[in-house]
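Just scan my protein:

. . .
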Amino acid sequence: MANEWQFEVPTAGSKRLPPDGRYMEALSSQGYGFEVAIADLVDNSIDAGAQNVLIHFLRDGDELVSLVIVDDGKGMDEDGLDVAMTIGGRRGYDGNSLGMFGTGLKSASLSHANSVTVVSRTKRSRPAGRRWLMEHAKRGFECDIIDPVYAQDFVDFYQGCPILFQGTIVRWDGVKDFPQHGGGGQTDRYLHRTVNKLGLHLGLHLHRFLARNDFHITISVQDVRTGIEYANYGVESLDPFGYPVPGDPTYPSEFTAHIPALGDVVLNAHVWPPHSSLDEYKAFGAVTEREGFYFYRNNRLVQAGGWNNFRQPEQHLALARVAVDLPDDPDAMVFRLTVKKDGVQASPAFVGSLETAEDVKGRKFTEYLADAERVYREARKRAGVSRKPALPPGRGVDPQVRQAIEEELPLLAHDEPLQFRWQKLPNDKFFEIDQEAHVLLLNQHYRAALLGGRSGSLNDAPVVKSLMYLLMQDAFQRERMGSRLKDNVDLWQAVLVSAARAELDRMAD
């Protein structure tokens, strides 16, 4: 009967519908971060058995022209290259591989470059190459074949550094993240910022590999015309559990969470020592982002912090970090890894199992969290100072400054963040206070002088904004300003205007 529910949908045949060429645009718009995209390519190098990986920024004077990733792995012949450059191509991933979906090389590369060229050779094959050019790919998945002579020359360029008998080169051209105009020191500033962030990201997510003696990543900057090498950095392992002494001597401890659909999952729970200044603790992310689960897949860190719906992050758990090596979950019923390998989706079954997880001493996982919180609070008490809660820092505050504020001050979690915005104001005012909107307005007239001629950005002038943030807490936390506070505001206004005008005079001289 027509009104009866059909448990199986009936079909009347099938039809082949190949993807449109525009699918390549969708593939390249998955939101890969720059560091995440590079890490995906290094994953391929590790899977190929590479011992050395070179990340090579190539410049022509002030202009950045290409980015090249080279490894000394086993390489690929022409058939292997065709598979690697096929969208969704499967190249026989084994149980220990870091690759999964067959899209990483293409989607990671074309997210950041208009062209990706891959040249490779094995011990038994000549160098061969393929290129995806976005314009060609959109017309119908047309992949270019690289001239064999150029392929040989390209391999020879990296002969001995790091390629010996075999290896692979991935070249990005038309990199969207590169400065459009490199003059005025823009390229140098970009490289300084990017190389630092890239080194930290790779050092963290691949720290288990970098801790070995047989695997190395180097980041280099070189001029293509002169051959001058401006920089050469070895990426260091950044172990998020690399503290010298634990914050609680009864940790680390292994908790076992039983999940009926998967079996036992081991949670290696750690308590960091309070007030640590080590890069392994402080160098990445805000304090509340660093706490929580650190999921590993085949020794590759795929999630650095977060509680995966088990609880909300909070400052008092800043010392709690839990290492979890993901078990084999072929049907992804409990743990599902994102395509970009930058996060894990955990099922309610995992979250529920945490309530009953225990270690060998019979302690519950929830007791571990209480211990981590206790260590944090006791360290605050021993400091002998109770700091007044502050408004959370908001838009316009540099992430590094925000991180320091979150670590040093208790925050009024339910209050609106204090934001900063440049705006045209009378020249006798350095700032204005918008209490209702929680915005501190800074005078646009003095911006160029305070930045020393540098270009402005959302999070610019971090020193000035940090000082204003600390000065203005009372002004934003009180509904009405008393006479004493008003007098202080007038005082700060007068002194800051004089200082800003002095900066303008120096700039004119």
